[in-house]
Amino acid sequence: MCNGGIGNKEPFWSGLSIKNQNTKEEFIMKRITITSLITGLLFLSIGINAQTLKFGHVNVQEVMQVMPEFKQMQQDLEGEYDRLENQLATMQEDYKKMEQEYMESAESLSAVVRQQKEQQLMETSQKIQAFYQSTQQQLSQKQQQLQQPIMEKLRKAIGEVGEEGGFIYIFAENSGATVYQSEQSENVTPLVKTKLGLN
Length: 199
Prior knowledge:
The chain is an alpha/beta fold. The protein has one domain. Helices cover 59% and strands 7% of the residues. Helix 1 (24-31) packs across helix 4, helix 4 packs antiparallel against helix 5 and helix 5 (111-165) crosses helix 6. The radius of gyration is 26 Å and the shape is rod-shaped. The protein starts with 23 loop residues before the first helix and ends with a helix.
């Protein structure tokens, strides 16, 4: 008998969903991690006189969440998520129909035809699993493609704020890498927002 799920056995992918029991929004936000978006932004060093020792920090998450490009990226990823989820659901439904048809006619089929049907079911089940795995890669690639221009725009804005303000370093606040932040460090988040035209 086929290992894909014939008879009373559920196929190994039964109930498989791209969202993995999370809501669509949770899934997307897990993939759009702040850490991945601020790679290269954690320490922005400006070539100025080091004697000034002027430091700043920016809340990258706060800035990104009000950027139109970031909101558009979320919408685009949500659309891609829905497209792939619908494809997966259609494939699962087609398999169930194929399996049901097999179960209803199995006793009247010859051994050769029965074996062919079982092979068909097994191959279809494997295709579903392979498709599910490929969706993870597709979503990751889509995220990288969409986030790259956002990263570049944000990096440029922080760099301009740093140069104009005479900062030697601007740290990414709440990045998990900064273990101490002095009150003398200036919060440049409003300046970065202004630079991006978000105020």
